[in-house]
Amino acid sequence: MFSRKLTRSIAVGAAAIAVAGGAYGIVSATSSSSSAAASSSSPAASSSPAGGPGSGGGGSNARSGPAAGGSSGTVGSVSTSGFTITTSAGQKVTVNEASATTYQNGTSPASASAITTGESVLVLGTVSSTTITATQVTVQPAGSGGSAASSAAGVVPFQRGAPAASKQVGQIPANYSQGSGTIVGGTTASKATEAALAAYPGGVVDRVVKLSNGEYEVHYIGVNWPHHIFVNQDLKVVGAN
């Protein structure tokens, strides 16, 4: 009798341990899933820029969505919702206008009617690939951003299948590594973009990144060189690669 009771007690105890172990496994799996989800939605994994006008903050440099940037070029077709431009290096860019878009003719305020075919313009806004939702459009003096400027800056137009040019000009921040830094928006991004486009017209700036030393990397697409333009804390271009 005692032996059967002891055996039964041992069996019940083993079953309880098995159930408890199973419950622990479920809890552990749930906890792991929750941690992974939290990690994937953390600021370090997010690419959306943060901050409004004047903001120097943003998400990480793991960009996967639109960010502040811009381009410059000659106006092609014009519609009620926007227009197209062709950069000095031949890149085609679509510009979408919005109710909040502002316009300048040189340094003077202007309206959307100032944007006509053949005008040279600087476009700042939110960039997704080669489409820009404009926050500001500036009609530039004749010759700004033209092919001569692009040639003088050494910009290498994009050629499908051609290897990217490998060269360095000016100063590259010490300890810089591609992919480092924090995406910025607002006035800081606009000024850095404008400086980069003035020095190296021809491509599209699709994000501006603040580096650990306080300087900025302006990321360039649509050309075979440069891909990174470096702007110091005074928002002056100091180098490119």
Tell the overall outline: globular
The CATH fourth-level homologous superfamily:
Copper binding periplasmic protein CusF
CATH topology: OB fold (Dihydrolipoamide Acetyltransferase, E2P)
Cross-sheet strand order for the largest sheet: 1-2-3-7-6
Task: Tell me the total number of β-strands.
Answer: 15
Q: What about the largest sheet?
A: 5 strands, mixed, barrel
DSSP summary: helix tally: 3
What count of domains describes the coordinates?
1
Q: Output the CATH class name.
A: Mainly Beta
Query: Uncertain segments of ≥5 residues (pLDDT<50)?
Result: 1-59
Please give the alpha-carbon distance between the first and last residues: 87 Å
How do the strands and helices of this protein lay out in sequence?
Elements (H helix, E strand, L loop, with lengths): L1 H39 L26 E12 L3 E5 L5 E5 L5 E4 L2 E3 L9 E9 L2 E9 L7 H7 L2 E2 L11 E2 L11 E3 L1 H14 L4 E7 L5 E6 L1 E3 L2 E4 L5 E4 L1
Parallel strand pairs: 3-7, 4-7
Antiparallel strand pairs: 1-2, 1-6, 1-11, 2-3, 4-5, 6-7, 8-13, 9-15, 10-11, 11-12, 12-14, 14-15
Can you walk me through this structure?
With 241 residues, the protein is of the alpha+beta class. It has a single domain (67-240), classed as OB fold (Dihydrolipoamide Acetyltransferase, E2P), CATH 2.40.50.320. The protein is built from three helices and 15 strands. It has helices at 2-40, 147-153, 186-199; strands spanning 67-78, 82-86, 92-96, 102-105, 108-110, 120-128, 131-139, 156-157, 169-170, 182-184, 204-210, 216-221, 223-225, 228-231, 237-240. The protein has a five-stranded mixed beta barrel with strand order 1-2-3-7-6. Strands 8-13 form a two-stranded antiparallel ribbon. It starts with a helix and ends with a strand. The relative contact order is 0.16. Mean pLDDT is 78; it is low at 1-59.
